[in-house]
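Table 4 source record.
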Amino acid sequence: MTDDTSLPSRSRAVADALAEAGLPGEIRVLPDSARTAAEAATALGCEVGAIANSLVFVCDGAPLLVMTSGAHRVDTAFLARVLGTGPITRASAAQVREATGQAIGGVAPVGHPAPLRTVVDTDLAGYALLWAAAGHPHTVVPMTYEELLKLTGGTASAVVPPQQ
């Protein structure tokens, strides 16, 4: 663990949110960027599916954070049907920054200016340990699926149709 003062400011906000939630996750600073699930999995020596990607979408005029397995892409039409919402579209880089205070490639499950409606991919439950970005493209934090649900207050949901 790197002490909080050596973390990027956005990662310190994530560390504070973890502590406030009573979660033990220790933020790890990686020597290289982990902007993609594949880069993160390589750096961490884990399966790409164990990477909990933080993707921001726009749904019914508000940001929607989807924590999805790095092993697949969110099917937005399917997810909108499951959630019973209007269309779900990918947020722009500016919308991501506005909603989370973080840049694409480093968006954490928490540490945002305000809580975000969150969906947590049920496929992540298949991994004993998950890794999520921690507010910066060079920082990650480990947690379990149950911890991710608790931390985000998210709704567990499939984000792709079965057998996809």
